Amino acid sequence: MCIIFFKFDPRPASKNAYRLILAANRDELYNRPTKAADFWGNNDILSGLDLECGKEGGSWLGINRRGKLAAITNYMEGRPNPDAQGRGFLVSNYLMDKEQDSYSYLKKVSTESHLYNGFNLITAEFKAKQDIVCYYGNKGSPEPIRLNPVGIYGLSNCLLDTPWKKLLQGKRQFSSLVSDQTLSCDELVEELLNVLNNQELNTPDPLQESQGDGYTKSMLEALSAVRVQTPHYGTRTNTIILIDGDENVTFTERNMLDCDTSKWNTNSFQFKLQS
């Protein structure tokens, strides 16, 4: 499970305003081997990497210096195919691709979507003349869509903006924050991390529960929070990405250490997009 909130505005009012504000949680088994975010691919791509056997090199969220960004969430389903291809490569492959734009890439992915368990994939391009964000979910429409700019979106483990209670709660808090123009960059990051670490349970939620065939009642309750926490599975990474009107990127990642929900480490990266 995962959750993502984001707002993009291709024409911010000033260079200090943000073209993109994104806040995301990665939920996973605590002991799944993972490399924390860093630059790779000739120092061009910034992301965490999956180190699970057979899925090494996949990712869940990343950005490159040329302004390409991708993020993925799994679609909640009780009995996934254990032989399906690793969904994390859909993120890594897009970030490495130097030919296809965001929509064309998703169009290609849509023709191969049967090879994967359920997923939602966001691909974006932040360039000097135009910002584009696209979405495709292989359990929804057969065609990718281009998202309307100056929008606020939420994505969890159903289709884009499906009104699960946890998504609505987090989106309200996110929307309130991103409308506050008085916050400094550091303050905004800190407040967004607070949104991502809200452990309030949003139960009952018949809409989410109706998709949870194969899940226990206690697990469905745990999954109803923005920050998921169980003894062995839950939110283990928070990520904030900010892109301002002057091409500056701030990427902040907060990671759980040693499978211990009380131990966390935060790293931040700053760089300028290449024109």
Automatic annotation (TrEMBL):
What's a single GO CC term here? Golgi apparatus
Q: Name one GO biological process term.
A: protein secretion
Q: Which InterPro entries match?
A: TANGO2
Give the protein name, as stated in the record.
Uncharacterized protein
Q: Supply the source organism for this entry.
A: Gouania willdenowi (Blunt-snouted clingfish)
Q: Give the gene name.
A: tango2
